Amino acid sequence: MSPKRTLLVLLASASLAVTALPAAASATNIPTTYPRNETVYTSGTMYGQPGDFNPLNTGDYTTGTLGLLYEPLFLYNPLTNKFIPWLAQSGSWTGAEQYTVTLRSGLTWSDGTAITADDVVYTVDLGKLASCPYYGLWNFLSSVTKVNSTTVQFTFSKPEYQEWSNWLYNYGILPANVWGTQTATTLIPHNVYTSTPSAGVVGSGPYELLTFDTQKVVWVRNDSWWGTSVLGLTMKPKYIIDEVNGSNNVELGQMLAGNLDLSNNFLPGIGQIVSNPVAGYPVTTYYPKPPYMLAANTAWLVPSGFMVQRW
């Protein structure tokens, strides 16, 4: 699973049946310290200074932009090869050339307005702009139509099924009323956050961007997240702080000291640490034996004519 979505899955899977939590801090009331028992520290996927929170700048946006801030229609579990409905309640094919997405009821943006089929249509239509990363979608997609407020119908001229499946979980749905009219020259440079955000910035996810600097990004829980009422999930950490990855050894030292809770980084000597635990080394791995780590990326091999493409 992509590291840009790992945080969401890890936190959501551990967040059932939690009592009501206090409201999120506003962006104008940024704390100078964060309670350790309310904060999850992560690192490993961010190798340089954060600052790009545009989900269409694929490969460059800051970890958490997709998953914590924006959300896709589906999640994908590469271990089981299963698509997990997320913003979408369901997706199904009618014949070979028509795909219908039904959104969940009760979806809301962080400003309280409803997430509707209009937002899905808007997001897909952005692909008509040459600067959009999924511009190629319209090589085989002929139309996208709003059926009603929660239903969208996609009609394909020559379906590329695996490319379409790839789109369903790799791109977040965007708020049409917030992003507004875009052009080929404004789309990719468009950055939702150019500095510490102020009130009014809208996403759909369980966290909002509180602040960032050269060394870290601080996410604060969105206590109005739709997933609490619709899915019965409540995110336990009030804050998630994702730190810039210094090096393999720095990461390991931080883990051993208990200063990091989750790391996506290769940790040197991890096999020895796991097989010979020492008091004070609070480190566990996804697998108890080699390879220890869970792969961060999903590779797709898709035959296309006489070509093989890799995602």
List the helices and strands and how they pair.
Blueprint: H1 3-13, E1 39-43, E2 74-77, E3 82-85, E4 88-94, E5 98-103, H2 117-125, E6 141-148, E7 151-156, H3 161-170, H4 176-179, E8 207-212, E9 216-221, H5 226-230, E10 239-243, H6 248-256, E11 262-263, H7 270-275, E12 301-304, E13 307-310
Parallel strand pairs: 1-10, 1-11
Antiparallel strand pairs: 2-3, 4-5, 5-7, 6-7, 8-9, 9-10, 12-13
Quick recap:
The chain has helices at 3-13, 117-125, 161-170, 176-179, 226-230, 248-256, 270-275; strands at 39-43, 74-77, 82-85, 88-94, 98-103, 141-148, 151-156, 207-212, 216-221, 239-243, 262-263, 301-304, 307-310. It has 311 residues and is α+β, with helices and mostly antiparallel strands. The chain has 2 domains: 3-70 and 196-275, Periplasmic binding protein-like II (D-Maltodextrin-Binding Protein, domain 2, 3-Layer(aba) Sandwich), CATH 3.40.190.10; 80-179, Alpha-Beta Complex (Dipeptide-binding Protein, domain 1).
